[in-house]
């Protein structure tokens, strides 16, 4: 391999690694706050990309029907609970978020012809469809079991993953989609051509990571999420409800997932089931960080990206095998170096 | 003119499965009062506070807070109404700074639209100057006494009407216990009612207005605390020789 190829592979690795890093951060966040191992993380990647592609093709994305349907389900459950508990003051919020918002968004997508809009507007609309699915999935699948063990929550995650993949096939069909690049230009540095989209991915990922950091360090709600992760009982006693923290972390995870999908859609063709593999690679990064450390998880995810791209050069048939085998030495090293702490409640 | 008590508990029963931990417990906390519940380990003192706060479900009984019977007790709702519990474990956010711990104490107030957390924090720093010195330090690195101060300070950030304290003296040196109790006694002046659960009966009765002795899930004796301090049974079981001093 000469230097030129190494640079190319490195560029590829860092681009993918940046995406895996975003997903790894989302996985660490969701696990720390809710103890859910969020296998469906990848589905939000696919949904984000495919929703954008559908909007660009002038179609109403299937995820919109999912949003409408889940909104009705959530509203039905929450309204019944509100009536039974005599908390009528919550009714406007329940109806607003779960019925009015999806209906208004549907009307908007019907009226504006998203295909003719500029790209940033299309991206925003795609996010507007996919991101609310995060808290809705939390409400329907996880909230009733919030106190269950990690294993039970993992089983729920598998079920949610399979459901969402199935729905993805139903909504978007078996063919993949690719969206146009954010910018067509290329950058030439020292004889190496870097595609505009690569730069977009890396810069957008970095910007998102910095935003997340600011959110956790500076805002009260970000601090509330960290507090829930550190001491759930203490957080509840401050009035930070487990439900609110769960929904908020799922909202962020869905946003990160959908945004990642939108970023890579111009680089790789995304199919309804592509998200799973991408999510799993983020998961390897998150495991390197012990599902607890954000910086280590992000660095681990970049390492996964690099390892993947270099192994695709040397042994392309085995590239997934090599990436996922990485988890074994990592787990060994983790179990040998960390003290085992029993879960205390 | 009579005002409703801050807290009135009637016939409260709480069970863990088939085991009944509290058996028809009734108690009352009036405005600006310090009321203490003393008793041996396992008498159900912590269970009592948990049920009042909504951490544990009750199986029977009524709880009225600020004159309103509580149909369904949820922790978040009680916090929103100005009830705060400092648990025995302190439940601090160890990997966050003292300042962030305090800010989170005002989370519910902030959510309800109050923006006075900085002013409240200044007041908390007045009460616990040590916390101001340590405000950038991680809560997990504090000493035992400082942790308790932070736990109480964090609870005060919610500007509570009723403060529930679970064993604030646990594991602390006598000098620090005295300081904590002095501060709890001072809270009364600012109109905060306190329900104090303690094993250190002597210290608790000294600052309390009224006391209840809880034994195996039932109220065994109750009365104004100076009466309890002279009660032979209380002296024998909880105060030891010397009684009041």
TrEMBL record, chain A:
Pfam hit, one: BPD_transp_2
Record's bilayer topology term: Multi-pass membrane protein
InterPro entries: ABC_transp_permease (IPR001851), BCAA_transport_permease (IPR052157)
GO biological process, one term: amino acid transport
Residue ranges of the TM segments: 17-34, 64-83, 95-113, 119-138, 150-174, 194-216, 248-271, 283-306, 313-333
GO cellular component: plasma membrane
Localization (cell): Cell membrane
Keywords: Amino-acid transport, Cell membrane, Membrane, Transmembrane, Transmembrane helix, Transport
Any one GO molecular function term: transmembrane transporter activity
Coiled-coil portions: none
Principal location: membrane
Family the entry assigns: Belongs to the binding-protein-dependent transport system permease family. LivHM subfamily.
The name this protein goes by in its record: Amino acid/amide ABC transporter membrane protein 1 (HAAT family)
Organism: Sulfurisoma sediminicola
TrEMBL record, chain B:
An individual GO BP term: L-amino acid transport
PROSITE patterns, alphabetized: ABC_TRANSPORTER_1, ABC_TRANSPORTER_2
SUPFAM superfamilies linked: P-loop containing nucleoside triphosphate hydrolases
UniProt key word Manganese: no
One Pfam family this sequence matches: ABC_tran
GO molecular function terms noted in the UniProt entry: ATP binding; ATP hydrolysis activity; branched-chain amino acid transmembrane transporter activity
Database matches in InterPro entries: AAA+_ATPase, ABC_transporter-like_ATP-bd, ABC_transporter-like_CS, BCAA_Transport_ATP-bd_LivF, P-loop_NTPase
CDD domains (UniProt xref): ABC_TM1139_LivF_branched
Family recorded in the similarity comment: Belongs to the ABC transporter superfamily.
Stated name of the protein: Amino acid/amide ABC transporter ATP-binding protein 2 (HAAT family)
Biological source species: Sulfurisoma sediminicola
High-level lineage: Bacteria, Pseudomonadati, Pseudomonadota, Betaproteobacteria, Nitrosomonadales
């Amino acid at each position: 391999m000469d230097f030129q190829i190494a640079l190319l592979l490195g560029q590829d690795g860092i681009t993918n690694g940046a995406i895996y890093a975003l997903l790894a951060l989302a996985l660490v966040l969701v696990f720390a706050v809710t103890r859910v191992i969020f296998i469906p993380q990848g589905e939000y990647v696919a949904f984000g990309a495919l929703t954008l592609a559908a909007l660009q093709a002038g179609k109403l994305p299937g995820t919109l029907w999912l949003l409408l349907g889940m909104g009705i389900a959530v509203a039905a459950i929450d309204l019944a609970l509100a009536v039974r508990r005599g908390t009528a003051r919550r009714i406007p919020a329940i109806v607003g978020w779960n019925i009015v918002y999806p209906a208004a968004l549907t009307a908007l997508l019907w009226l504006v012809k998203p295909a003719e809009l500029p790209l940033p507007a299309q991206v925003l609309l795609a996010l507007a469809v996919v991101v609310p699915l995060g808290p809705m999935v939390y409400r329907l699948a996880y909230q009733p079991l919030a106190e269950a063990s990690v294993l039970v929550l993992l089983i729920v995650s598998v079920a949610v993953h399979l459901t969402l993949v199935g729905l993805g096939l139903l909504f978007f069909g078996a063919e993949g989609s690719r969206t146009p690049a954010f910018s067509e230009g290329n950058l030439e540095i020292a004889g190496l051509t870097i595609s505009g989209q690569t730069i977009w991915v890396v810069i957008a990922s970095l910007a998102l990571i910095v935003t997340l950091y600011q959110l956790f360090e500076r805002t009260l709600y970000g601090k509330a999420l960290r507090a829930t992760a550190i001491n759930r009982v203490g957080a509840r006693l401050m009035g930070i409800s487990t439900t609110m923290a769960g929904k908020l972390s799922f909202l962020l995870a869905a946003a990160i997932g959908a945004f990642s999908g939108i970023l890579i859609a111009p680089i790789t063709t995304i199919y309804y089931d592509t998200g799973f593999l991408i999510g799993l690679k983020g998961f390897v990064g998150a495991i390197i960080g012990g599902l607890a450390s954000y910086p280590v998880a992000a660095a681990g995810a970049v390492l996964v990206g690099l390892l993947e791209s270099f192994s695709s050069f040397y042994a392309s048939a085995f590239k997934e095998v090599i990436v996922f085998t990485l988890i074994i030495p990592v787990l060994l090293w983790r179990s040998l170096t960390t003290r085992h702490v029993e879960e205390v409640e | 003119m009579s005002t409703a008590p801050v807290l009135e508990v009637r016939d409260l029963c709480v069970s863990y499965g088939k085991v009944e931990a509290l058996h028809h417990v009734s108690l009352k906390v009036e405005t600006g009062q310090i009321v203490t519940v003393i008793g041996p380990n396992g008498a159900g003192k912590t269970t009592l506070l948990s049920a009042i706060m909504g951490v544990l479900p009750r199986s029977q009984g009524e709880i009225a807070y600020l004159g309103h019977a509580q149909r369904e007790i949820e922790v978040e709702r009680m916090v929103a109404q100005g009830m705060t519990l400092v648990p025995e474990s302190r439940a601090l956010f160890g990997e966050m700074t003292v300042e962030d711990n305090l800010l989170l104490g005002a989370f519910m107030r902030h959510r309800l639209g109050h923006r006075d957390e900085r002013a409240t924090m200044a007041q908390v720093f007045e009460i616990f100057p040590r916390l101001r010195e340590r405000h950038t330090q991680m809560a997990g690195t504090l000493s035992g006494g400082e942790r308790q101060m932070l736990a109480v300070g964090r609870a005060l950030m919610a500007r509570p009407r009723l403060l529930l304290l679970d064993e604030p003296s646990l594991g602390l040196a006598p000098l620090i216990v005295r300081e904590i109790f002095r501060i709890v006694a001072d809270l009364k002046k600012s109109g905060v009612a306190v329900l104090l659960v303690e094993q250190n009966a002597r210290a608790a009765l000294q600052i309390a207005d009224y006391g209840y002795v809880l034994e195996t899930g039932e109220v065994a004796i109750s009365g104004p605390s100076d009466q309890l301090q002279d009660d032979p049974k209380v002296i024998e079981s909880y105060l030891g020789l010397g009684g009041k001093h």
